[in-house]
Design brief:
The structure holds two protein chains of two kinds. Chain A is mainly β. Helices cover 0% and strands 54% of the residues of chain A. In chain A, the strands form three sheets. In chain A, strands 2, 5, 6, 10, 11 and 12 form a six-stranded mixed beta sheet that branches. Chain A has a four-stranded antiparallel beta sheet with strand order 3-9-8-7, with no helix packed on it. Chain B starts with a strand and ends with a strand. The chains are: A mainly beta, B mainly beta.
């Protein structure tokens, strides 16, 4: 069974600093995708970044980057130069077929 | 345009009422999803429609009845709900409804419909 674990229920970061959110997953598949979604208080799930498992290069999207360690089944999200608007719930997701497996989420607080 | 539109944004209904949640996307996506989300929890998959046919039903009670009138629309009909069904209901869509998720097949979510059952 596929599982996704986010071991940090809550994190906080000072504005303009860097924070890393961790995610590990368990799978026997070789072909899959990994996503980070952000859910602000408005509750809309917003795609932050996507990583294809077959790509060795870590995905980057502006201030957001991932550290993808396929052998370790780890997929952490780094947010650089944190902004107040980054405060949200962050969900890691593992995807194979049309099934999404979400982690339990990490609530990120940004301190002014 | 990566927009999935859901209506209504808020719904309060009694346990004997019949209501519907609606979802629309105009991205040409062929897979559409209903998720249920409780506070501070991840979304839970309810249904998946692939090419307008129900492909996944995650053992959802029959008081929830999905409908896909066409490739752009997805409804969730609600009848005889219980207070514990109160939650945020998220609609989502992805480009491909095939058996395997292919490159570019990101799932895009709507803003959700807040449902309160009284």
């Amino acid at each position: 069974a596929q599982t996704v674990t986010q071991s940090q229920p809550e994190m906080s970061v000072q504005e303009a600093e860097t924070v890393t959110l961790s995610c590990t997953y368990d799978t026997s598949e070789s072909d899959y995708y990994l996503f980070w979604y952000k859910q602000p208080p408005s509750r809309q799930m917003i795609l932050v970044i996507r990583q294809e498992a077959y790509k060795q290069q870590n995905a980057t999207e502006n201030r957001f980057s991932v550290n993808f360690q396929k052998a370790a089944k780890s997929f952490s999200l780094k947010i650089s130069d944190s902004q107040l608007g980054d405060a949200a719930m962050y969900f890691c997701a593992y995807v194979t077929g049309n099934q999404f497996y979400f982690g339990t989420g990490t609530s990120l607080t940004v301190i002014p | 345009d990566t927009e999935v539109t859901q209506t209504p944004k808020h719904l309060v209904m009694g346990m004997t009422n019949k209501k519907s949640l609606k979802c629309e996307q105009h991205m040409g996506h062929r897979a559409m999803y209903w998720y249920k989300q409780k506070a501070k929890k991840p979304p839970e998959l309810m249904f998946v429609y692939s090419y307008e046919k129900l492909s996944i039903n995650e053992s959802v009670p029959s008081r929830f009845s999905p409908e896909c009138p066409n490739s752009s629309l997805l409804n969730l009909h609600l009848h005889a709900l219980q207070p514990e069904d109160s939650a945020l209901y998220l609609c989502a869509s992805s480009q491909d409804g095939g058996p395997r998720l292919r490159l570019g097949n990101t799932i895009y979510f709507g803003e959700g419909s807040w449902l309160t059952v009284v």
